Amino acid sequence: MKLIHIADLHIGKRVNEMSLLEDQSHILQQILRVVDEVKPAGILLAGDIYDKSVPTGEAVEILDDFLTALASRDITLFMVSGNHDSPERLNFGSRIMEKNHVHIAGTYSGKLRKITLEDDLGPVNIYLLPFIKPAMVNPYFPDAVLETYEDALRAAVKSADVDESQRNVLVAHQFIISGGQLPQQSDSETITVGGLDNIDASAFAAFDYVALGHLHGPQSIGRETVRYAGSPLKYSFSEAHHHKSVTVLTLKEKGTVEIEAAALIPLRDMIEIKGPIAELVRQGEELPEKSQDYIRAIITDENDIYDAIGQLRQVYPNIMRIDFENSRTRQNLDSRTAASGDITLKSPMELFEEFYLNQNNSEMNPAQRGIMEEVFKQAGS
């Protein structure tokens, strides 16, 4: 049996105040093309469907188009909520949609939802676990003490009474570790400080494959079959070097799962460029097809640049961010925040001279010094 695992669509997300709705609609069409090539029995969609708990009307329309396209292909969809989703909103209409083989677990109701598919080798049980916190699970286990996310998940899994002699798949959206090993993370993910949401991969021993959402880089954790599909698009420049994909898994006889990645090609990539501003402008003019990408530009000029963002936007209309990297920015951080020696013994002018040197890696010229002396004189310093 073939299944496709995707996650973290974040429909409606904005990056640097730019809407990605067009990009998201394009990438969902890419996923549909993979579906047409693979012809899976089902799609596992592991949470963070929307980027906000109250999605925009445009975001809802994009998801509606995607679900309608899957239903027209007679493919079963298994979907759980993520930490970005509103569980109740995601649940809306779910009982009606089941008639079209769309199974949604938005809220946790005290047990894992189980849907069984059949192939020539027998049943495959798909379990759906929406994003949970201890407070969401505690009311269903009044005799247990569930203090951590792992306590809550283990209680939920144990209560499902999984038949481990059969093939079992879990769709979930949590932060999974393996012993002391942490997964790779991106800036665009919501991370809990202090590891409060950590769950060890050993909690999934009953499942042949665990389709995870939450982290945006495709990766396995603990074992090959406990896997994050990753987001289909890059949502921060920390993901610039990611290769986005969907995960295609083939369930054979019990205990045998083959995993492949099907590459996705975005409408616009998210890339970093670096160099003197004149060189970056030249590159954009010579490669107009790449200049449409979402850009973080790292400018290395030593001299101050007038209207750097305006110059670059002429050739990179979708530039999102600029940073500077030169001898001034590479100085030790300590020298940026503290003047040397006892500051109580130094005049305001001496302190400013040190500050200017730390910021610019050069001393003020006589004209600049004269201006600042006049400023301090007028200020009475």
Draw up the topology in text.
Layout lengths: L1 E5 L7 E2 L2 E2 L1 H18 L3 E5 L10 H16 L3 E5 L6 H5 L2 H4 L4 E4 L7 E7 L2 E7 L5 H4 L11 H11 L7 E7 L1 E3 L20 E3 L8 E5 L5 E3 L1 E6 L16 E7 L5 E7 L6 E6 L1 H10 L7 E6 L8 H6 L5 E6 L8 H5 L10 H13 L5 H13 L3
Parallel strand pairs: 1-4, 4-5, 5-6, 8-9, 9-12, 10-11, 12-14, 17-18, 18-19
Antiparallel strand pairs: 1-15, 2-3, 7-8, 13-14, 15-16
Q: Which short descriptors sum up this protein?
A:
elongated; six-stranded mixed beta sheet; about 375 residues; Purple Acid Phosphatase, chain A, domain 2; 3 domains; 11 helices; single chain; about 30% helix; alpha/beta
Work out the helicity level.
25-40%
Low-pLDDT residue intervals, each spanning 5 or more residues: none
**Order of the strands making up the biggest sheet:** 6-5-4-1-15-16
As for the CATH topology of the largest domain, it is: Purple Acid Phosphatase, chain A, domain 2
The CATH fourth-level homologous superfamily of the largest domain = Metallo-dependent phosphatases
The beta-strand count equals 19
Give the strand content: 25-35%
Order of helices and strands: EEEHEHEHHEEEHHEEEEEEEEEHEHEHHH
Structural class: alpha/beta
Mean residue pLDDT: 90
What's the end-to-end separation, in Å? Answer: 79 Å
Structure annotation, total helices: 11
